Amino acid sequence: MTYVYDDQNIFAKILRGEIPNDTVLETEHTLAFRDIQPQAPVHVLVIPKGPYVCYDHFARDASDAEIVDFTRSGGEVCKREGVQENGYRIISNAGEAGVQEVPHLHIHVLGGRGLGRMLQPAP
Ligand code: AMP
């Protein structure tokens, strides 16, 4: 698989400081910020700072340090947002079938209300 990273995507612009964001957490390799159109009381996006298109790209090419930092940051966001007790959902959309809008890896951390079943039946 060849991954082509578009450095004009909106999260790349956020990482370069060209677009503001509501930061929840920043580490050496990871940034977490609030989704601009929240789907739940807690809706935080966690992204690696490196140029990875999607989860499988990151899993293949990121360094161990980046992977550890990203994974621990996701957990830290759950803790800081107070969703550990009642539960939460993490989603990472990829590609066309996954309806990924922004081609920079991100996980959605959703919580703060009952989230229903994971997928709706196909229409
Ligand atoms: P996805 O469909 O998984 O690619 O989701 C992209 C997400 O990025 C959507 O939930 C958008 O609301 C969110 N989003 C787009 N632009 C921004 C932005 N400037 N700041 C925060 N979230 C954004």
Strand content: 15-25%
Largest sheet, strands/sense/barrel: 5 strands, antiparallel
Which CATH class is shown?
A: Alpha Beta
Structural class: alpha+beta
CATH topology: HIT family, subunit A
**Reading side by side through the largest sheet, how are the strands ordered?**
1-2-3-5-4
Bound molecules: adenosine monophosphate
Enumerate how many helices there are, as a single number. 3
Using only C-alpha atoms, the radius of gyration works out to 14 Å
Number of strands: 5
What would you say this structure looks like, in words?
The model has no long low-confidence stretch (mean pLDDT 97). The chain has three helices and five strands, in the order H-E-E-E-H-H-E-E. Strand 2 and strand 3 form a beta hairpin. The longest helix is centred in the middle third of the chain and has 18 residues, at 64-81. It is an alpha+beta fold and 123 residues long. The protein has a single domain (10-111), classed as 2-Layer Sandwich (HIT family, subunit A). It is globular, with a radius of gyration of 14 Å. The chain has a five-stranded antiparallel beta sheet, with helices on one face. Adenosine monophosphate (AMP) binds at residues 10, 19, 21, 35-37, 45, 93, 99-102. Adenosine monophosphate (AMP) binds next to loops.
